[in-house]
Amino acid sequence: MGESAAGLTASPPPSLPISLLSPPAVPMELHVENREKLLRALRDHLAAASRPIRGLILLQGGEEQNRYCTDHAELFRQESYFAYLFGVREPGFYGSIDVASGQSTLFVPRLPADYSVWLGEIKPLSFFQERYMVNMVYYVDEIAQGLNDSCKQLRKPLLFLLHGLNTDSNNFSKPATFKEIEKFETDLCTVHPILTECRVFKSEKELELIQYANDVSSEAHVEVMRRIRAGMKEYQLESIFLHHIYMYGGCRHCSYTCICATGENSAILHYGHAAAPNDRILKEGDMALFDMGAEYNFYGSDITCSFPVSGKFTNDQAAIYNAVLQAHDVVISLMSPGVSWIDMHKLAERTILESLKRVGILVGDVNEMMASRLGAVFMPHGLGHLLGIDTHDPGGYAKGLERPKEPGLNCLRTVRDLKEGMVITVEPGCYFIEALLNPALEDLVKSKFLKREELGRFKNFGGVRIESDVVVTSNGCKNLTNVPRQTWEIEAVMAGEPWPLNLKQPPSCPA
């Protein structure tokens, strides 16, 4: 039997876990409150600019996509801004909100008669009005009439359309378009920054969903830890995660493509894509880096766990892991309203550099290392990002904020000061990436800090990342993620202990 086939039967899985989680009902009031939040912010903006409080906010929902020229429909997921305001699961909808009255309207696609044969019951308009808690419902082919009905007093109603830059993707939101839109006055500039800012700060109902996505994902990560064995394929661990979040958590969608990296692959920051599809065979002595998060009712999670495939840390693995864990923990301990995210990133860099110096990989003055931006060689990505309906939630660079230009800092997805209600990931990492280390070894400034022989020992090490989802509170923060983090906790769980552990300290420590 070949190596690949052997990996598929390397070890029988243990008995299925029992989850205490149950998918919660989602109150549609969540989206009603989101619409009210946007209205308050938009009205305040218009009043401050001495503009009349009138017009309609109009958003176009997502469209179902087929696979290229085939009739294979990809699993639909709603456009995020539309999901935020209306909570609609189906494709092909439009939605509007009257700025003056606050009345909301949905426009529903008119389905052909044979839809009921192939795809199920054709629901009446009243179904969508009740389900999504809106004031009025029309068909999409009646959109011009419906919008005019909402603004009968105006000869040419004003439509606030969603159009603006996503600073993570550098793509623009597409404004709504429909037949006869030229008969309306349109505003492409006002709504996007206001709605984006609304999404930055989470309500209690939103936090409950993000917490649930974290709970499901945390359970699934623990299950992966328990079942990992040398000889398996990376995708088998991805499969265990996906099965758990769907089987026990009711999560049909992931927040993003799973990163299931082992060995040298764990130094590939966004591993798992089509050209690197989680297909390596795990080896004894590998470090694993699994970055995976479930999505529930549009709201997501983003969790990374790093641990040894063998279930026991070597000295080198523990040294790098603890360097990253210390950075992770010190950042979370200091997070509170008013704290600069740039300062937190630099603190994580400094903490990792100091640890690498203690290990003997680096030599010299850490202040000088920081000045030379050596930290970006080992942690080339930003410390974290806003999280919500999107994994990289928008709003990281509000108007007036500029992206830094220095290495490492230029990858920060936000440079904002923290504020209550923000949900942000804390994900420091330490990687041994030849494409970054080799130029650093040739650099006159950076090379003096690097101990070439010691670095050689980590040539195929890969990397470590530790990522938790954290909400900023009025006087600090709360970590929403619940997975083993200390090396002794990880080893205990991988040996079969339940999580959370009954012990609060490692067995060798006095009570």
TrEMBL record:
<dbReference type="Pfam" id="PF05195">
    <property type="entry name" value="AMP_N"/>
</dbReference>
<keyword id="KW-0479">Metal-binding</keyword>
<dbReference type="GO" id="GO:0006508">
    <property type="term" value="P:proteolysis"/>
</dbReference>
<feature type="domain" description="Aminopeptidase P N-terminal">
    <location>
        <begin position="26"/>
        <end position="170"/>
    </location>
</feature>
<dbReference type="InterPro" id="IPR000994">
    <property type="entry name" value="Pept_M24"/>
</dbReference>
<dbReference type="GO" id="GO:0030145">
    <property type="term" value="F:manganese ion binding"/>
</dbReference>
<dbReference type="GO" id="GO:0102009">
    <property type="term" value="F:proline dipeptidase activity"/>
</dbReference>
<dbReference type="InterPro" id="IPR052433">
    <property type="entry name" value="X-Pro_dipept-like"/>
</dbReference>
<dbReference type="InterPro" id="IPR029149">
    <property type="entry name" value="Creatin/AminoP/Spt16_N"/>
</dbReference>
<comment type="similarity">
    <text>Belongs to the peptidase M24B family. Eukaryotic-type prolidase subfamily.</text>
</comment>
<dbReference type="Pfam" id="PF00557">
    <property type="entry name" value="Peptidase_M24"/>
</dbReference>
<dbReference type="GO" id="GO:0070006">
    <property type="term" value="F:metalloaminopeptidase activity"/>
</dbReference>
<keyword id="KW-0378">Hydrolase</keyword>
<dbReference type="InterPro" id="IPR036005">
    <property type="entry name" value="Creatinase/aminopeptidase-like"/>
</dbReference>
<keyword id="KW-0464">Manganese</keyword>
<keyword id="KW-0224">Dipeptidase</keyword>
<comment type="subunit">
    <text>Homodimer.</text>
</comment>
<protein>
    <recommendedName>
        <fullName>Xaa-Pro dipeptidase</fullName>
        <ecNumber>3.4.13.9</ecNumber>
    </recommendedName>
</protein>
<keyword id="KW-0645">Protease</keyword>
<dbReference type="InterPro" id="IPR007865">
    <property type="entry name" value="Aminopep_P_N"/>
</dbReference>
<keyword id="KW-0482">Metalloprotease</keyword>
